[in-house]
Each structure stands twice: as structure tokens, then as C-alpha cells.
Amino acid sequence: MSRIGIIAALPAEAKCLSSKKLKAGLPIEIQQDVFLCLSGIGHESALFAAKKLVALKVDALISWGVAGAIDNSLKSGDVILASSIINGENRYSVSEDWLSRVSEHFLPSEPNIFSGDIASCKEICASIADKQHLSQNTGALAVDMESAAIAETATENNLDLLVIRTISDDADTAIPEAILKHTNNLGQPRIFNFMLSCILKPKQIREISSLASGYKKGLASLSEIAQLLKDSHFLYSDS
């Protein structure tokens, strides 16, 4: 059976696939020939995790988790099966046959599923204006910070690639300062500074609540499709 490596940036995203405790950068086998690695947020973290999975001689990589919408047609909880990943001047394609098998596997009763490009940036796309600018420049549906690194590794090592993301924040939702400045690489708040930021700028509290609600919807969709794909070995075949 072919070996698959999956990278999730955040613990809650990884938990949709496995209840096992994970340490960043240390892959574990969650079922036969399926390996999951918690990376932490960002390009470099994802690159490190991808290389760890390559060392396990996987045949394919999956970028797994939530993303931010930059197209107004997408809402929290929607699913994106990326057709390609855009990173500046670079564009990485996913494995068309694999994408087709996964796309055909879902029923109309499942979450709203979109196929389109994902922009992957090294810097967080935080403001509504940033999202609009990125949308205009790329035509992508959503943005994340890890998929380009995973795609780069897949390309360099001749591995198949799939990107599965669910929408957390809408295109008209900004990321407040407390989250930008006072959370760590695993998305966990540095409590004192986080709370102080909220006290000094209480308008953020409503924004954080809105983000939390969207994130919850994104994780719910991610959990729903996780079971469907795990039961089918992620519809992967290298034949």
C-alpha cells in the first residue's frame, strides 16, 4: 500500500484526523501507511515537517487544515480542494487524478465543496484590504501559510500532492492584534499579553468571537470529511 504524509499546522486541525498526542515536527503513524505531522504555523515550519515525512519515504503529501477566504463567495465551513497553489511567481499543481477521485467521493449532503486556487503566503494576510488585494492579484479562493512549502517539497521529491482546506474566516473578517501578536506558533494565546491587548482594545473581543465561531465551523467540516477520507485511504493510489 502507498504511504501518505499529512501536514497540519495546528493541534485542533490534526485532532480531526487523530486523537493521539502530537509534538511539532515529529510524525506519527495514524493508520497503516498514513503519517501525520503537526508542523506549527508558517512556511518554514511546514517545510521542516514535509522533510520529516520525506525521510519516512512517503509517496504523497497532503496539506490539511483551515484557510482564510479571500473570495466573497466562500463562507466559514466551506471546503476547498485546491487545484493549484500560488506563491508569488510560483504556481504548484496538485495531482489531478487524485483530486478527481477525492472530488467525486463526496455527496451533495456533505459540506459545500469548491475547487480552485489557494494562495500561500509567508506573511499572514490579516486585514480585509490585504485579502482583497491578494484576491485581485491571484484570483485564488483562499489563503494559507503552509501549502506552498508542502508543494515545494512534493515537487522537489516527485511526490503526489493534495491540498484539503476548510474555510475558517470569511473574506470580510480581519485578524485582530491580540491574535497576530500574542499567540504562539501553535495558535495558543500567551495569556497575559493576550488579555492585556483585549483590555486595552476591547473592540477586538467581538472580532475574536467571530473568528472563533468561524474556526469552529471550519473544524466541524474538517472532521466530517476526515472520516470519509480515512476510511478510503484518502482515495490515494500511485498506480
Features:
Rossmann fold, 5-stranded mixed barrel, alpha/beta
What this model shows, in words?
- With 239 residues, the chain is α/β, with parallel strands linked by helices.
- The protein has a single domain (4-172, 214-235), classed as Nucleoside phosphorylase domain (Rossmann fold, 3-Layer(aba) Sandwich).
- Helix content is 38%, strand content 23%.
- The protein contains eight helices and nine strands.
- The protein has helices at 11-15, 43-55, 96-105, 128-138, 147-156, 177-181, 191-200, 203-230, and strands spanning 4-8, 28-31, 34-38, 60-69, 79-87, 90-93, 113-120, 142-144, 160-167.
- A five-stranded mixed beta barrel has the order 4-8-7-5-9, surrounded by four helices.
- The protein is globular.
- It starts with a strand and ends in a 9-residue tail after the last helix.
- The model has no long low-confidence stretch (mean pLDDT 94).
